[in-house]
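Slide 14.
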Amino acid sequence: MANNAKHRVLIVDDSPEICEMLQNQLQNIYQVYTAPSIAKALVILDKQTIHIAVVDLVLAGESGLELIETIKKNHHMTSVIAMSGQATIENAVTAMKIGASEFIVKPIRNLDLLNIQIEKILQNQWLIEENERLNEMIHRELDIGSIVGSSASIHGILQKIQKIAKLDTIVLITGDTGVGKSVFAELIHRNSKRKMKKFVSVNCGSLTETLLESHLFGHKKGAFTDAWRDKVGYFQEASDGTLFLDEITETSLSFQVKLLRVLETGLFRQVGGDHDIRSDARIIAATNKDIKVQVEQNLFREDLFYRLNVLNLYIPPLKERKDDIRLLTNAFVKEFGIKYSKPGLTISPAVMNILLKYEWKGNVRELRNSIEHAIILAEHSIVQPEDLPEAILPKSKQMELPTLSDMKWTQAKEEFTRRYLISLIEKTDGNMSLVSQISGIPRENVYRKFKQYGIDPNLYRKKELGQ
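Slide 15: predicted structure.
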């Protein structure tokens, strides 16, 4: 990550002792400013970019919540950590709903936790900035359009497209359902010398063999029932442009013979026609299946495979590029915020944690649909876990618990501790300060306990954030 000395942290607290303590904790790593009031904090915010503001919610005669609202409205590059000595769920809920990224309870017994929270936020900021930088660099040579991603695999794909887009070579795009194969096919077309011509797309798996032949090659009037007039096929329509054959492995072996002829000669014949027509369409094909296995099982012609597989572009599933989930989520939030007249929406840390842990078998398409669902249901300025589709929410931890009496003593003690911690975190809706107070375990030890038993407190904030 970039040098931390360049990052500026603003501490807003009316206690000189607190300001001095936090400044001493952070000043060796960050450039630290302090302000005892909202007015002085705004002066600092207006003069330079502050990366993180640590804001006490209770100031002398003022509310830190007002400052947080102002920061989120006028200083979009500044993230907020809310801080309060009043360890109530209500304070945390309100602060998170109006835009705070983290919440910390005073007195801060373990100052290193503040460093951890700041570093976590800065890493996320860096990820977004790095993606914008890399995209800008690639954008000089490539019109990337709606492609979003910061992972090494996505930038590798974009660099490969930069090389192949200007060629007229056939491209085979492979990858699971929902990874965006059609988006990358359009990207290739948009950066080719054919970009002013048509991009024609057909899903080969959605049509019967007869209809597919008619759609691709066209037909003459009277060639079959319902052929009331001549029809131009996609090969002819996409001539001088690009024809995208999606789900190519869904075609029959008999149709593959006809398709191979077009790819080898550029010639095809309309259904019911009596002469050949030439097409100069560039072909991009795609499949969500392992095409080599299809060939081995005699479900796909080997000669057609080799004809299509001149250049292969593999799009990895979302689970293999977790770095892209944050960026895709932010892009979809912005897109659907505009579509549904809800601008300025953001994602709560609890929601992002759920999104990062989910498997996304439907890949980018499933993520996009889930965010659209959440934006439609969102009633606050920050999307909460209950706004997400129920299917992606973490399943209850109370299913089929083993009986303690059936275990050895050491196993039973471990299992009891785990259940006890889960019951506490559920009861307090994710408030670690309350867990510490009820259990009598020091706060810094509470975090270690939850980590030891593999329990993520963020997953239990649904009720808290939804009040």
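Speaker note: The chain has a mean pLDDT of 83.
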